[in-house]
Design brief:
GO terms for molecular function: oxidoreductase activity. Keywords: Flavoprotein, FMN, Oxidoreductase. It holds the Pfam family FMN_red. By secondary structure, this protein is of the alpha/beta class. It has one domain: 3-Layer(aba) Sandwich (Rossmann fold). The chain contains 7 helices and 7 strands, in the order βαβααββαβαββαα. Strands 1, 2, 3, 4, 5, 6 and 7 form a 7-stranded mixed β-sheet that branches.
Length: 203
C-alpha cells in the first residue's frame, strides 16, 4: 500500500512561530490517527518563499524553489493549513500562496484548517474567512478546525487545545480515508430470544 502524502502549509512570519507550532501539532495528531498507514509529510513554510511569491504574482513565473512547494501541495492526498490572523482574516502572505496554486489543485482534497491569534476574539476568522476560501477552491474541508490563542498554549497537552488538536487530526484522517465514525456496539444484539427463555423455564 502506497504512502499517503500530507502537505502542511504554515504561514507564520516569526521564528519561533506559534503558527508553525500549531501546524506541527496538527500534523502529529493526523499522522497518529492515520496509523498504521505510512505518511510522507511535506512542510511548506511560506515565509521561506515570500520573495518568490511576490515575483510569481508580478511575472506569472514560479522559481524552482517555489515550484517544488506548489507541486507538493497540488500532489498531496490531504493538506493542513495554519495561518496567523491579521485584521480579522488570514495573512496576506498566505493568500498570495493560495492565489498562485494551480487551478483546481485542491479540488476534492481533504483540508484541515488552523489559525492563531493573540486572543480568542479572532477565532471567527476560520469560519468567515478560511472556510469560504477553501470552499471556493473546491476542497473537502474537515468539520473540525482549530484556533489557538496565545493563552491556549499553557494547556496544549492536558487542556482544551490539546483535545481540539486531537479531534481535528482524527477528523482529517477519517475524511482522507473515507471512514465514518466507528459504529457503536448494540448491547441488545445478542439477547437470548424470549421463546428460548420460556423453553428453559418449562424445562
Amino acid at each position: 500500500m502506497s504512502a499517503l502524502r500530507l502537505a502542511v502549509i504554515t504561514a507564520g512570519l516569526t521564528q519561533p512561530s506559534s503558527t508553525r507550532l500549531l501546524a506541527d501539532r496538527l500534523t502529529e495528531a493526523t499522522v497518529a490517527a492515520l496509523a498504521p498507514r505510512e505518511v510522507v509529510v511535506e512542510v511548506v513554510e511560506v515565509r521561506d518563499v515570500a520573495h518568490d511569491l511576490t515575483n510569481h504574482v508580478l511575472t506569472g513565473f514560479a522559481s524552482p524553489e517555489l515550484q517544488v512547494r506548489l507541486d507538493a501541495i497540488a500532489e498531496a492526498d490531504a493538506v493542513i493549513v495554519a495561518t496567523p490572523v491579521y485584521a480579522a482574516s488570514y495573512s496576506g502572505l498566505f493568500k498570495m500562496l493560495v492565489d498562485v496554486l494551480p487551478k483546481d489543485s485542491l479540488r476534492d482534497t481533504p483540508v484541515l484548517l488552523g489559525a492563531t491569534g493573540g486572543t480568542a476574539r479572532h477565532s471567527l476568522a476560520i469560519d468567515h474567512a478560511l472556510r469560504p476560501l477553501f470552499a471556493h477552491l473546491g476542497a473537502l474541508v474537515a468539520p473540525v478546525a482549530v484556533f489557538a490563542a496565545s493563552e491556549d498554549w499553557g494547556s496544549v497537552d492536558a487542556g482544551s487545545l490539546g483535545a481540539r488538536i486531537e479531534r481535528a487530526g482524527t477528523a482529517l484522517a477519517r475524511l482522507l480515508l473515507g471512514n465514518a465514525a466507528p459504529e457503536r456496539s448494540d448491547p441488545f444484539e445478542d439477547v437470548t430470544p424470549f421463546a428460548a427463555l420460556l423453553g428453559e423455564l418449562h424445562g
